[in-house]
Amino acid sequence: MTERQEIPVTEGESVVAVHHPASGSDRWFVCCHGFVSDRTGSYEGRCERAVAEGYHAVRFDSRGCGESDGRFPAATLSARIADLRAVLDRFDPAAESAVLFGSSFGGKTALHAAAGDGPGGDGTPDERVRAVATRAPVTYGRAFDPLADTVRARDGVEYAPGHSVDERLVDDLDGYDFVDVADALDLPVAVFHGRDDGSVPLADSLDAVRALDVDTAVHAVADEGHRFSNDAEAWMRDALFGWLARR
Known about the structure:
Keywords: Hydrolase. InterPro entries: AB_hydrolase_fold (IPR029058), ABHD10_acyl-thioesterase (IPR052382), Hydrolase_4 (IPR022742). GO terms for molecular function: hydrolase activity, hydrolyzing O-glycosyl compounds. With 247 residues, the chain is an alpha/beta fold. The protein is built from eight helices and ten strands. It has an eight-stranded mixed β-sheet, with helices on both faces. A two-stranded antiparallel ribbon has the order 7-8. Helix 7 links the parallel strand 9 (189-194) and strand 10. The radius of gyration is 17 Å and the shape is globular. The protein starts with a strand and ends with a helix.
């Protein structure tokens, strides 16, 4: 049975998380959703699979998304890293016991948090994390350059229906560089990316993999875009947990 929790991040603002328990396990699988997503949908299926593989699993809504407090324009990368750290602090996984899984912007959140960037980080890798897995991750800031130009020209835009962004997002992104992740990260990384992704180029993931000096698995999935089909999602889960079993 799942457990719903409200986890304070700042005074007056909390995130909503769902814990899928795994009896007798000391391993954790923590999901970070994409930019305009939330903890529902595929994240529930991923967490159920993680439990079947012997992991406690957690999925949560970042502030400004889903059921969590806050407004979307304030959901910067820094805010999402703080949300992830608050979730990790609540469940308190032991050293090298947690796998972070992030899709799209959630991949960027997971990578920078694991490397020790952002609020609550000290520039050294988070000792609780033993691996990071990503699907279509945002790595280099250049993926957001066109949006940043538009935001600064118009003082904000509606990124998607009901999801407006302003200079808080793009100014915050300027403070993060994937080079810092590549320099700091010392744990295995898996990347799954559709070859036909029109939102985040596969080339960004390939460049990121080349920059990382760690055990890295990269899967360029044919005929898949930014959102995976059901078949590709099922294949990714099999490949992901097979990879983790060998780490």
